[in-house]
Amino acid sequence: MNLLSNRFEVPYYAVIFTSQRTTGDQGYGQMADQMESMGRDQAGFLGIESYRESSGAGVTISYWKTLEDIRHWKSNPAHQIAQDKGKQTWYQSYSVKICKVERAYDFENM
Amino acid sequence: MNLLSNRFEVPYYAVIFTSQRTTGDQGYGQMADQMESMGRDQAGFLGIESYRESSGAGVTISYWKTLEDIRHWKSNPAHQIAQDKGKQTWYQSYSVKICKVERAYDFENM
């Protein structure tokens, strides 16, 4: 998702996924790429942005048209396998917040 | 804000501030620290988390009890000076999203 992404009409929805990775890749990178690619093909997908620091702390925020779209992607069988692997192996801890985006605006320095 | 932060009763509010920094510090670090410190003292402040990658792309998410608390901090005179300086100097671009957190849950790998 481009930084200047507020081209969607509010309200839409955001999933804020804050996480602390365990050490070592252990197949995480490949699965993350695969899940992002699959996520982009889901109904109602609007965008995604990810940031991770060298400490292993990071956040992924995905944007969706409706809560139903979020539920649908959460219950996708391949995504569920990835979620299980995340709990077993890739994440020390995580926090999920489901949010309704009520207002959005951008600034660009020309 | 601790990663496992979902100790607040929903609904509460999140401000997702995604930004692309310009190059060089130019007083940014000091002002960011000062604003975070002031923000923590505001009415309705719940927490803050920040991630920035070496590319200069990053996100700060702050959490608040009410929309009124967010408006109040946005209009704080010292914060307004920082916002102006941000537009003039520190940010190539940014995007602000005001969100209502409707559901939140955590996972911790024991």
TrEMBL record, chains A, B:
UniProt entry tagged with the keyword Nucleotidyltransferase: no
Record keywords: Monooxygenase, Oxidoreductase
InterPro entries attached to this UniProt entry: Dimeric_a/b-barrel, Jasmonate_Hydroxylase-like, Monooxy_af470
Oxidoreductase listed as a keyword: yes
GO MF, any single term: monooxygenase activity
PANTHER family hit by this protein: ABM DOMAIN-CONTAINING PROTEIN (PTHR37811:SF2), BLL5343 PROTEIN (PTHR37811)
Record's protein name: Antibiotic biosynthesis monooxygenase
Organism for this UniProt entry: Paenibacillus kyungheensis
